[in-house]
Amino acid sequence: MATRALNTAQKVRSTIPPHASTPPPVRPTTHINHIVCFGLGNLTHPRTRHSLGHVIVDSFLDRLGLGIWKKSANLKSMIAEGSLPLPDHVDAASGHFDSVKLTLVKNIPPMNLAGQSLQPFLRQNPINRSTLYFFLYDHLDAEEGKIQIRRGGSCGGQKGMKSCLGVLGKHDKETYQIRVGIGKPSSTDFTASYVLSRCTAPQLSYFRPDGEGTISIWNSILEAAYPSPGSDKIVSVGKKKEDMLQASAAKKLRKEAKAQKDAERRKAREAEATGESYSGSEGEQLMDRSKS
């Protein structure tokens, strides 16, 4: 009986393929076969802080060997195109493509009118499940060199991106924004001259073709388009909801504290006029709480 059971067990084991307990990971599929990197800047002010979007796509051009820029009068853009192999960890959903079309774009109209460049380009390259757009631009409200990548959202005060959002309309949530921090000048009076001044040597080095910033942004683009197994797509790196709620509560507390302090000052003046003494501290306590 024992011998028969042993023989049966051996037969069962022989039918199990090697490594059956650890099957190979399933390769995710993708529909994306066209990536558009739209760098915002001013062709009349190259290599300036306000043209960092142009600086970065220039570095992409050299790093990826896409040749030279070609001027398209109809599209009001400078265009460079090429193809790259599909990342190893993904399969084409249709199985009909094994490479990715990459289009780099620089706007020809001034920064504030960048939408005039995007509009004709979008007519020829509409946003759909197989085409993914990335907009690269400078950002005053982030420290120099800080890179923020988010899907959709506001322009963050950047007028070139604002112009593009006016063209994108409801499709903005289907695109990515890559903000590159340039820091702020010492006074808002100097903002215009600050953004139009040349990039510093460290900035240009950081975003040269083999620079750390260029490589980081390109890797983030690939990860957003083709997430690695087990990872999530890149989302907004702005404030978390909890942080925003906390900031809102603190703002409300500061407002209440100010109103209380004003009321206490009025009572103090009235007490002084009548010769009475008055000491209020509730407003100060609220102010202390709003700072914590």
From TrEMBL:
Keywords: Hydrolase, RNA-binding, tRNA-binding. GO terms for molecular function: peptidyl-tRNA hydrolase activity; tRNA binding. SUPFAM superfamilies: Peptidyl-tRNA hydrolase-like (SSF53178). Residues 1-28, 248-292 are annotated as: Disordered. The keyword RNA-binding applies. Residues 256-272 have a biased composition (Basic and acidic residues). The keyword tRNA-binding applies. Residues 1-13 have a biased composition (Polar residues). It comes from the Eukaryota. InterPro entries: Pept_tRNA_hydro, Pept_tRNA_hydro_sf. This is Peptidyl-tRNA hydrolase. It comes from Phaffia rhodozyma (Yeast).
